[in-house]
Amino acid sequence: MAKSRGAPAKSARRSAAAAARGATSDAKGSINLRIETGTRQLIDDAAAVLGKTRTEFMVESARRQAVDVLLDQRLFTLDPERYDAFMQALDNPPAPGPKLKALLRRVPAWRT
């Protein structure tokens, strides 16, 4: 069984909190799009095949794509051997090399 490790970024926590608030709120907004006629017809045809309205189809498709994009940036899975190697590398980073040491000695641009 593969283990997974997600990067717990502040923005991810804020997004989760926003999603939780959105789930309890009935407020809705609108998105206006300008698309080519052929694209609109393609969307309408696909929605009809699934028995959905254009709006339902577009919202579900966009939401699914958004989740995929965000998970792709925050979640990765590894088999147990590679997970252990990854955790070992995080727990025991290599000693800083000369380039990193030089970088850390530089005065940041915002302080000059």
From TrEMBL:
A GO molecular-function descriptor: DNA binding
Biased composition (Low complexity): 1-29
Listed GO biological process terms: regulation of DNA-templated transcription
Spans traversing the lipid bilayer: none
Keyword vocabulary terms for this entry: DNA-binding, Repressor, Toxin-antitoxin system, Transcription, Transcription regulation
Residue ranges, annotated region (Disordered): 1-31
Pfam families in UniProt: TacA1
Record-stated family: Belongs to the TacA antitoxin family.
PANTHER family, A to Z: COPG FAMILY HELIX-TURN-HELIX PROTEIN-RELATED-RELATED, CYTOPLASMIC PROTEIN
Protein name: DUF1778 domain-containing protein
Taxonomic placement: Bacteria, Pseudomonadati, Pseudomonadota, Alphaproteobacteria, Hyphomicrobiales
